[in-house]
Amino acid sequence: MRKIACFLFGILLGAGAPAGAQQVDVIEHELDNGLTLLLVPRPGDPNVAAGWVAKVGSVYERPGITGVAHLFEHMMFKGTQTIGTRDIEQDLQIIEQLDALRAEIQDAEVELDRRYQLGEIDDPDDPAERSPRHQELLAEFEALLARQSDLLIPEDFSRIYTAEGASGMNAGTSYDFTIYFVNVPANKLELWFWMESDRLANPVFREFYAERSVVHEERRLRTDSTPIGKFQEQFEAMFWQSSPYGWPVIGWPSDLEGITRDEALGFFDTYYAPNNLALALVGDFDHDEAIALTERYFGRLERSARPPLQPRTREMPQLAEKRMVAYADTNPQVVIRYHSVRDGHVDEPALVVLGQLLSGRTGRLYRSLVEEQEVATSASGGQAGFQFEGMFELRGTARQGRTPEEVEQAIYAELETLKSEPVAERELQKVKNQNAADTFRGLRSNFGLMMQLLIREGNRGWEHINTDPALYEAVTADDVMRVANTYFTPETRAVAVYYRDESTETEDDPLLAGLSDEERQQIRQVRAMLGQMPAEQLDQFLAQAEQMVGQVPSENRDMAEALVALVRQRIEEMGGGR
Amino acid sequence: MTGAQRLAMSCWMGLIFVGLAAPATVAQSIPAHPRDLVFEDLTFEPPERAAHRHELSNGGVVYIVPDRFLPLVTVSVLVRTGAYLEPADKAGLAALTGSQMRAGGAGELAPAAFDEEAAFLAAELSSNIGDTSGSASVNSLTKDLDASLDLLFDMLRRPRFDQDRLDLAKSQVLQQMERRNDSTQSIEVREWRRLLRGVDHFSTIPSTRASIESITRDDLVAFHREFYHPGNFIFAVSGDVEPGDFLSRLEARMADWPVRAAVATPVPKPDHDLQPGLYAVDKDDVNQGRVVIGHLATMRDNPDRYALMVMNDILGGGGFSARLLTRIRSDEGLAYSAYSSFGFGTYYPGAFRVSFQSRSETVARAAAIVLEEIERIRSEPVTEAELGTSKASFIETFSRNFSSSASTARLFANDEYTGRDASYLVTYRDRIRSVSSDDVLRVAREYLHPDRLVVLVVGDRTTIEAGDPDNPDVTLEELAGGGITGIPLPDPFTMQYPTAP
Predict the structure, then answer these.
(1) Beta-carbon count within 10 A of B228 CB
(2) For residue A518, what pLDDT is reported?
(3) Pick from A83, A133, B173, B219: most CB atoms within 10 A?
């Protein structure tokens, strides 16, 4: 279930920075330990959308522990000193013994890997290559795990929430931040304070090594065994030269096999201190009571001795065009990327507006490439500003009988037009209108507003929800022309060209009609995950996905609706929802 | 005061003290475990339907649920129409009319210009027609309300039904038609309806290549003209509006639109004698069997509704805690999911149905468990724990009906459309609360009929009938008693069924 959240974040973020409502009334409160509290009381529906953000994501990692931020998010559901165990004393003893054994096993694995790298053995995972001591250690490890499993209460954390009527518990990790959220009935707000502060104050990262394998499996499902997932990963690594945005949020396989519990704990101490966290509550509650509860439950957390370390390495300026040609199980398509600006840069609003001029059913790329030239079946583009870097991405899928290079040239032609001719006022106004309306729509539900506050707080600060709209409204035709000339230069771009790997078959599914190839790809990934999801999680996921439809910008709406249709289909397959 | 009295007194005082002090202590410290938390009851009063109902001077009904938090307005229209009103040889006409009102341009604007105008206004505009109703809606910024309403009313009143867009839509319908027999799910839905309601009810008459190809632009124009007029409209309005101001905008747009009588044609009830027994559709390229077991249920206004809801929830409606899933999935590992529903029909009785998917080999065993559980809930009372969990979940989720002004307005309009008295919303939670385990037993006996079950199996018949080698005593043949009736797959374009083998 947590796998899905990461994916949904992709949609939200991929849309670039959306503008916010004109004025969202947020009550802000800071605890002595540095914790930030954001409150939006909204009486009516007797529920509260509750969540918190840790200002840490994969770009805060370093080589060797890539994936730890996301792995850590998984560990946060494994219980505490109180939750998830029948006997905490024994449990902690076993965890300590497991760590010691694991360290020895790791040494043996490193030795096998060294021999493999030298070509002395063919397969480092072959049991026949292991030393007797190595085998012995593994056997001891297994025996300990079996003892521990008698002490564990599986999924205790989520069961407690569900039994009290909470729904949609989930979390997600991005490049820049990690968010944990759930919807609780209004009378059970204290339960949320209990559960969330407990896992921050008294965490026990049990089943660490098993969860590491789960994440590795997730990686296989999402990246390695999907038609273009592994190519996308290569493209990222090619696009970013020195910046940590070049490694995947889920982490490199070698790191996923090697991260120790100690390293994860160190990460926790640095980045999950209260001065690096913000809580957000939106819904039916009394703000004085919420503040009192926050003081009582979260006040017990200790501020970290030093401020959390920030990523230091910046992207080197790109000097020459980069190009990747791939043969994959996908329709022929092209992805074009330019280095642009980070979230909050003065040029970002103009770049976002430019992306919106190009995208959507009445956007320039669709009208020109799909309807007039009939060279593509879909085409879109947009700015994506992260916390420390940014990019502008364009993509198009070739119509049958046309090549991705033709699509690429047609996209460049549209960019050249933007560089030389000012956009018509009415066209600009259309985009501004849609931008404003879509972001309001994103705030209709308590859940949507909570997420926006946390995402913004995870980047530049929540208050931009109230100040960004004026910046988007102020973008002029000249601004658009200027940023087009500034950022769309051949030497700062990277291009991925995909040809169909002829050994594979096409898929013809009505659900996927009208979606871009990347979106189809995501839908296939979700379908694979849904296949493994039990019925009650599906219901929760459906509720989330439905809320999401109203919140994504219009150019992502087809995708979001397809997603909802997919979940409904799956629920029906399983015999219907409640 | 005697010693004994003093002792009694101090104990009593002590109790008071504890009684007073306990909440204060709880309020200041952190309980050791979340189970020690004390929650107040959830207080929630549903909004009143009558308070949101308005009438236009032409007699039209408008529900308005203001919510001024964001500058957005949603205007929906429920329209008295539906596929039940289309001629049998034009099956598909209603759906096409509904979708082409949005796609085919309107008023002075050809399709592309109409799309562009909606995009400029950032208005979400939609139209569709279902089995027993039609709907159209627009969501826009408050500042663009007038222009967006103009688009909505052009779409409602002056759709252009552009020929090119209609041709495209028809070709897409035919493309989808080809896939009718591809999934066991679509086969199951279709055949279950036919078994339950017969082959000549409007809900079981399929569109065909011939019916779709015969539909012309003139048919759309005529269908639209017959049903889209103010006499057939109920409005549901929500968001950033002031009711008086909004009503005058509606009045202005409807002033010169003549009101005709609302559609009076009742939704036809099925006229079919359900034949209990075991039916099978052979689809040999799947390894999962899809099974439905059930019979007709009841109507929406049945006073036993609440007891039936709880009964069904405990039997198989309540997910992981329900009996069917617990036994079939968790205990026996026979199916990923198993689920029951008890349908309360608005126009004709809904269906009681248990459905599950299982490996072909274990279909018969899972089916046998379903029959056992139906028998069990009819023969012994449910436990107090089961009853409590089920009732609490209905009561706690009740407020979600009103989670937004749009869902509240829609609920009110729908209830008026289907002639449902508003009082059920007021009494709902109390009626759930009053359900006892005796009630559950009584309705299970009265409404579940093991001797009248229709069993539909879709899957690989050969493997399913062979059964589970590990449990040779349960076979489909045995469960069937009276034998298995085969249902062949029809031609997806003509929907002609080959004569049964």
Answers:
(1) 25
(2) 60
(3) A83
Choose the mutation target among A187, A507, A508 for the interface with B, i.e. most B CBs under 10 Å: A187
Question: Which comes out higher in pLDDT, residue A505 or B99?
Answer: B99
CATH domain B277-487 topology: Cytochrome Bc1 Complex; Chain A, domain 1 (3.30.830)
ipTM of the complex as predicted: 0.77
Q: Of A353, A361, A560, which is closest to residue A442 (Cα–Cα)?
A: A560
- Render pLDDT for A83-127 as a digit per residue (tens, 0 to 9): 999 999 999 999 999 999 999 999 999 999 999 999 999 998 889
Angstroms from A22 CA to nearest CA on chain B: 9
As a whole-number percent, the residues of chain B with pLDDT over 70 amount to 92
**CB-CB neighbors (< 8 A) of A357 in chain B:** none
Residues of A in contact with B396 (CB under 8 A): 165, 185
Question: Are A28 and A162 contained in the same domain?
Answer: yes
Residue B356 at interface with chain A, using a CB cutoff of 8 Å? yes
Is the CB of B330 inside 8 Å of chain A's CB atoms?
Answer: no
* A160 contact residues in B (CB cutoff 8 A): 34
Give residue limits of the domains in chain B. Answer: 50-254, 277-487
- Which residues does B14 contact at the CB level (< 8 Å), separation at least 6? none
Tokens of B278: 């075991």
Question: Which residues of chain A register pLDDT less than 70?
Answer: 1-22, 225, 502-578
Minimal Cβ distance to B120: which of A300, A433, A440: A433
> Which residues on chain B are in Cβ contact (under 8 Å) with A359?
none
φ/ψ (deg, to 5) at B291: -130, 135
pLDDT digits (tens, 9 = 90+) for B230-277: 999 999 999 999 999 999 999 999 999 999 999 999 999 999 999 999
Task: List the structure tokens of A543.
Answer: 């509720």
How far, in Å, CA of A405 to CA of A421, rounded?
Answer: 24
Average pLDDT, chain A: 86
**Architecture of the domain spanning B50-254:** 2-Layer Sandwich (3.30)
Q: Tens of pLDDT along B323-361?
A: 998 788 766 677 767 899 999 999 999 999 999 988 888
Per-residue tokens: B43: 């207080």
Whole-number Å distance between alpha carbons of A180 and B362: 40
